[in-house]
Design a protein that fits this description.
Elements lengths: L1 H22 L3 E7 L14 H13 L5 E6 L3 H14 L3 E3 L7 H8 L4 E6 L3 H10 L14 E7 L7 E6 L1
Parallel strand pairs: 1-4, 2-3, 2-4
Antiparallel strand pairs: 1-5, 5-6
Helix pairs in contact: 2-3
Length: about 170
């Protein structure tokens, strides 16, 4: 009888510890601008080079445990996100790039997860700066399509970290 009670207490402690670790897990945001786009349209599609870059993004992130993919509601961003979403068997969720505070909703919905967000040359840096709590990332130039920002946001309230990559 004593041993059963002992194991129940051990099990309860293990469950409580696992829940605490999960609650304190950092959420990782992978932020990327859409790939190369056609010109001459208000809502352009990707160029062949842009389609290749979108495929490279999916390949680059193929080993990451991505739980959510977000895109602004434009053809070029959805097309950039599509190969990754298809590979991970996820639907592309739409967000408003003018509202960086939506990242907190993403974080609440997917705590401790890896979330990919595809946006624009001016909105991805704003989102990064919002998550970081300071202005560290400048807008991308019109010909910059290869920036990838990884922002790790600890659940504990510690300062978020930024890693910049090129893909």
């Amino acid at each position: 009888m004593k041993s059963t009670g002992f194991w129940i207490v051990v099990w309860l402690l293990a469950v409580a510890t696992a829940q605490q670790v999960h609650a304190q897990a950092a959420t990782t945001f992978i932020l990327v601008r859409h790939a190369e786009k056609e010109s001459g349209s208000k809502d352009p599609a990707l160029t062949p080079a842009g389609q290749q870059r979108a495929e490279r993004l999916a390949h680059f992130l193929s080993r990451q445990a991505v739980q959510a993919v977000y895109s602004s509601n434009y053809q070029r961003t959805r097309q950039t996100a599509a190969p990754l979403a298809l590979m991970k068997n996820l639907s592309i969720q739409t967000y408003d790039p003018a509202r960086p505070e939506e990242a907190r909703s993403m974080q609440r919905e997917f705590p401790g997860a890896t979330i990919v967000v595809v946006g624009h040359s001016n909105t991805i840096p704003k989102l990064a700066n919002y998550l970081l709590g300071k202005d560290l990332v400048a807008d991308f130039t019109d010909d910059e399509y290869d920036n990838l920002l990884i922002i790790t946001v600890p659940a504990s309230g510690k300062e978020a970290t930024l890693t910049r990559l090129v893909f």
